[in-house]
Amino acid sequence: TLGTQTDYRDGEAQTDPYSPEYVVPSSIPELLTLATLAWGRGLPAGLAEVEMIERAREKRAWEATLPAMDSASNIAKRRKMMDDMERKEWAFREQEIEKLQEARLELLKELLRRQVENQNKLNAKRLDDHWQNHQKAKEEEIKKIQHDCALMLRKLIAKRKNVMGKLERRDIIKEYTDFGSQTYAPLSRNGYFPDNHSECYVVKNCYLDTFAGLCELEASLPDYVTQVKIKAPTSKYTATETGFIKRSARLEATLAQVHQ
Is a pLDDT exceeding 90 seen at residue 21? Predict the structure, then answer.
């Protein structure tokens, strides 16, 4: 249930598995039939390689059953067996070619499907961009129409104010009493932009921008500014020892206020 791994692995030490030299004895072993297979080209063996090995074994077993060529009947029988085997091999080869063609056809279908999907995505993106461009043009046209509408409404309102065409003089008092007039709040379409050059009204002083300037400014102020002295107010009325105000004193204060 535990997996271990060394510091050095086969995959890091070599590229292909090592194949030692060998000497073929008088009898050829079955393993040498796989000498054409190499790592990455048939090894490790898969289903196709196993089927090839089984076909090679069947062919060797079939070769062992062939009759000897010592008589005319055996030669005819051998020729017939070899013709049948050749037909089987050609049929097997046709099946392999059909499988290969089917695999290529499926690959071609997949490529065509991907090409169609990519083309559809590209068309959808183009349509989306085209639609967005139309929407932008539509919004700009709507803004222009609204601006023209507001302009025409202002012109109609201005004409309706003076229907008879009389000459009206400027009423300065009315302009300064109305805080929404052109004097206090001029319109930007008349050429006045109150937010332009607003930084010119900002107070720039070294005594206010730096801490050392603030300390120097505070030190230059007199004491009565920073240290306020509050005097207790004195009573306007004459009070008794117990703190109450007499009726006569309150009446005198009222008469003095009325006289003033």
Answer: no
- 118's tokens: 């990519």
Q: Decide if 160 contacts 152 (C-beta within 8 A).
A: no
53-102 pLDDT, tens digit per residue, is 888 888 888 888 888 888 888 888 888 888 988 999 999 999 999 999 99
Name the nearest CA neighbour of 39 among 21, 16, 9: 16
Measure Cα distances from 241 to 77, 244, 249, 250, 252 in Å: 158, 8, 14, 16, 19
Peptide bond into 186 cis (omega under 30): no
> What value does the mean pLDDT take over residues 153-181?
84
Which residues make beta-bridge pairs with 38? 41, 42
For residue 103, give Cα distances in angstroms to 42, 52, 90, 97. 19, 19, 20, 10
Q: Give the three-class secondary structure for 259.
A: helix
Could you tell me the residue ranges of all domains in the chain? 37-136
